[in-house]
Amino acid sequence: MTEVLVLVTVDGGRVTRSALELLTLARRIGEPSAVVFGSDVDTDVLSRHGAATVYTFESPDFADFLVVPKAEALAALVADRQPVAMLVTSTTEGKEIAALVAQRASAGFVYDAVDVLPGQQETNTVQSVFAGNYTVTSAFAGGVPAVIAVKPNATTPTEAPEPGTATVQAVIHLVSEAAKRARVTSVVVKSSGSSRPELGEAAIVVSGGRGTGGDFSQVEDFADALGAAVGASRAAVDSGWYPHQFQVGQTGKTVSAQLYIAAGISGAIQHRAGMQTSKVIVAINKDPDAPIFDLVDFGVVGDLKAILPQATATVVARTG
């Protein structure tokens, strides 16, 4: 079976959900091999999700410099292994790495894919474009590998039907001097002050808009009951009601959650562009003619300040 390289992201030794999603998608088109920068990773989890091989790169150069050393190492691995495809998570860093690898490998590159499908002799990808108004299916006509950056929450991670034990291979790559021209001098992690999941990777998102009137407490309480991330519309952010880092939309973050709940959001195209690829969308709005209702799977006409507390109490009662 043809090999598919999957760039695995690790958070404190824990394999991220988005990495497990990539392994799930990779199994559709070949035999997944995980690529990890560092050795602090749970190989058992990778094995259960289908990874036959785990390639590890261990060097301070991959942390001390920007993305070029990682892209250089991956391009060398691609040249050596000749995989049918390479999958990465479509984050800012992931897209930059993928683009550099594709350029070095003279391969095709698709970013912000929401699905990966096998073709007759090629790999197909699905994208949601033009603010989610169109779906585009693309096929790679040539080039090895097909380099694909996939949006988080594009699929539900599943374990392999017959998982084996992954073989761990340490890969030595000497980073060139040209790749070390930009050094990381310091890293400051901006804390959100909560234990909620990161907005871009959250499976469930509860967002608030102008209808909150500036009070996001009901939105936050409901999100905490669901184990969800909190988002905000541009109107709420521009009004100073919620920090910009939580804005969902064309000029904010794009999410593709399993469940997206929009509370007090009218549904302007700017906001829809950032969330309408979510699997299930629920809206709560007092205006029955709000544009958001044209998009949703379930709609509730009413005041979020009355509805959200009831929903929160119900979730808490059922989950204990």
| Count of extended strands | 16
CATH-level-2 architecture of the largest domain: 3-Layer(aba) Sandwich
The termini sit apart by 46 Å
Under CATH, the homologous superfamily of the largest domain reads HUPs
Count of DSSP-assigned helices: 9
Radius of gyration from CA coordinates: 21 Å
Number of domains: 2
Shape: globular
- The fraction of residues assigned to DSSP E strands is 25-35%
Judged by helices, strands and strand pairing, the structural class is alpha/beta
**What is the ordering of alpha helices and beta strands?**
EEEHEHEHHEHEEEEEEHEHEHEEH
Q: If you consult CATH, what is the topology of the largest domain?
A: Rossmann fold
Largest sheet: 9 strands, mixed
CATH class of the largest domain: Alpha Beta
Write up this protein:
This protein has 320 residues and is of the alpha/beta class. It has helices spanning 17-29, 43-48, 61-64, 68-81, 92-105, 217-226, 234-238, 269-272, 304-319; strands at residues 3-7, 10-11, 14-15, 31-37, 53-57, 85-89, 109-118, 123-129, 134-139, 146-150, 167-171, 204-208, 229-232, 259-263, 280-285, 298-301. It contains 9 helices and 16 strands. Helix 6 links the parallel strand 12 (204-208) and strand 13 (229-232). Helix 4 crosses helix 5 (92-105) and helix 6 runs parallel beside helix 9. The N and C termini lie far apart (46 Å).
